[in-house]
Structure to design on (72 residues):
Protein backbone atom coordinates (compact mmCIF):
# COMPACT_ATOMS: atom_id res chain seq x y z
CA UNK A 1 0.00 0.00 0.00
CA UNK A 2 2.84 2.36 0.78
CA UNK A 3 4.12 2.16 -2.81
CA UNK A 4 0.69 2.99 -4.19
CA UNK A 5 0.54 6.08 -1.99
CA UNK A 6 4.00 7.15 -3.15
CA UNK A 7 3.09 6.64 -6.78
CA UNK A 8 -0.11 8.62 -6.32
CA UNK A 9 1.82 11.40 -4.61
CA UNK A 10 4.43 11.52 -7.38
CA UNK A 11 1.71 11.53 -10.05
CA UNK A 12 -0.01 14.38 -8.26
CA UNK A 13 3.22 16.39 -8.03
CA UNK A 14 3.97 15.79 -11.71
CA UNK A 15 0.49 16.91 -12.66
CA UNK A 16 0.88 20.07 -10.56
CA UNK A 17 4.23 20.81 -12.21
CA UNK A 18 2.79 20.24 -15.67
CA UNK A 19 -0.22 22.47 -14.96
CA UNK A 20 1.96 25.29 -13.62
CA UNK A 21 4.16 25.04 -16.73
CA UNK A 22 1.06 25.31 -18.92
CA UNK A 23 -0.11 28.37 -16.99
CA UNK A 24 3.31 30.00 -17.30
CA UNK A 25 3.47 29.30 -21.04
CA UNK A 26 -0.02 30.71 -21.53
CA UNK A 27 0.89 33.87 -19.61
CA UNK A 28 4.07 34.28 -21.67
CA UNK A 29 2.15 33.88 -24.94
CA UNK A 30 -0.38 36.45 -23.76
CA UNK A 31 2.40 38.93 -22.85
CA UNK A 32 4.11 38.38 -26.20
CA UNK A 33 0.86 38.94 -28.07
CA UNK A 34 0.23 42.15 -26.13
CA UNK A 35 3.73 43.42 -26.95
CA UNK A 36 3.28 42.61 -30.65
CA UNK A 37 -0.05 44.44 -30.68
CA UNK A 38 1.47 47.50 -29.01
CA UNK A 39 4.38 47.56 -31.47
CA UNK A 40 2.00 47.25 -34.41
CA UNK A 41 -0.27 49.99 -33.06
CA UNK A 42 2.69 52.30 -32.48
CA UNK A 43 3.97 51.58 -35.99
CA UNK A 44 0.60 52.57 -37.44
CA UNK A 45 0.55 55.73 -35.32
CA UNK A 46 4.06 56.67 -36.48
CA UNK A 47 3.10 56.08 -40.09
CA UNK A 48 0.09 58.37 -39.74
CA UNK A 49 2.16 61.00 -37.93
CA UNK A 50 4.74 61.00 -40.72
CA UNK A 51 1.99 61.31 -43.32
CA UNK A 52 0.48 64.27 -41.46
CA UNK A 53 3.88 65.93 -41.08
CA UNK A 54 4.61 65.43 -44.77
CA UNK A 55 1.34 67.14 -45.64
CA UNK A 56 1.95 69.93 -43.14
CA UNK A 57 5.44 70.75 -44.38
CA UNK A 58 4.80 70.24 -48.08
CA UNK A 59 6.42 73.02 -50.08
CA UNK A 60 4.18 75.98 -50.76
CA UNK A 61 3.89 77.25 -54.30
CA UNK A 62 6.27 80.07 -55.21
CA UNK A 63 4.95 83.63 -55.29
CA UNK A 64 5.33 83.74 -59.10
CA UNK A 65 3.31 80.54 -59.52
CA UNK A 66 0.52 81.87 -57.28
CA UNK A 67 0.29 85.14 -59.20
CA UNK A 68 0.30 83.26 -62.50
CA UNK A 69 -2.49 80.94 -61.37
CA UNK A 70 -4.55 83.94 -60.18
CA UNK A 71 -4.26 85.54 -63.62
CA UNK A 72 -5.50 82.47 -65.44
Amino acid sequence: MRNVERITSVKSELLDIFMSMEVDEHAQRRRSAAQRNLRARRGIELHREFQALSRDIAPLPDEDERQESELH
Remarks:
- The longest helix spans residues 2-56.
- Residues 60 and 66 are 10 Å apart (CA to CA).
- The chain has a mean pLDDT of 88.
- The two ends are 105 Å apart (CA to CA).
